[in-house]
């Protein structure tokens, strides 16, 4: 499912597999943790008020919601294709 399809759902599916294009998000910060894991702070480029207000962390190909302190919480349904 695409991001557009996800946002247009009338009866939302719980945790669908939503593929996000590079043009649909912006990376604002990148950091490498002690274990070598790379975390990227990302925001969606959208007019959808719900998605505009959430900061995500991109780890590998998956998006994770973050708390107020920037710590990862739960894996979201959004992901990118890694080539």
Question: Can you describe what's shown?
Answer:
With 83 residues, the chain is mainly beta. The chain has one domain (3-79). Helix content is 11%, strand content 41%. It contains 2 helices and 6 strands, in the order αβββαβββ. The chain has a 6-stranded mixed beta sheet with strand order 1-6-5-4-3-2, with no helix packed on it. A hairpin with a 5-residue loop joins strand 2 and strand 3 (38-44). The longest helix has 5 residues, at 3-7. The radius of gyration is 13 Å and the shape is globular. The model has no long low-confidence stretch (mean pLDDT 91).
Properties at a glance:
41% strand, six-stranded mixed sheet, 6 strands, 83 residues, globular, mainly beta
By oligomeric state, this entry counts as single chain
Main sheet characteristics: 6 strands, mixed
**Which class of secondary structure composition applies to the elements?**
mainly beta
H-E string: HEEEHEEE
Helix content: 10-25%
Low confidence ranges: none
**Alpha-carbon Rg, integer:** 13 Å
In which order are the strands of the major sheet placed? Answer: 1-6-5-4-3-2
The N- and C-terminal alpha carbons lie at a distance of: 18 Å
Q: Assign an overall shape.
A: globular
Could you give the count of β-strands? Answer: 6
Number of helices: 2
Mean pLDDT: 91
Give the number of domains. Answer: 1
């Amino acid at each position: 499912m695409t991001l557009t399809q996800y946002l247009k759902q009338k009866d939302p599916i719980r945790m669908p597999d939503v593929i996000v294009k590079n043009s649909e998000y912006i990376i604002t910060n990148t950091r490498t943790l002690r274990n070598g894991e790379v975390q990227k702070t990302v925001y969606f480029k959208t007019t959808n008020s719900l998605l505009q207000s959430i900061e995500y962390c991109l780890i590998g190909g998956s998006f994770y919601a973050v708390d107020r302190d920037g710590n990862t919480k739960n894996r979201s349904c959004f992901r990118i294709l890694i080539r």
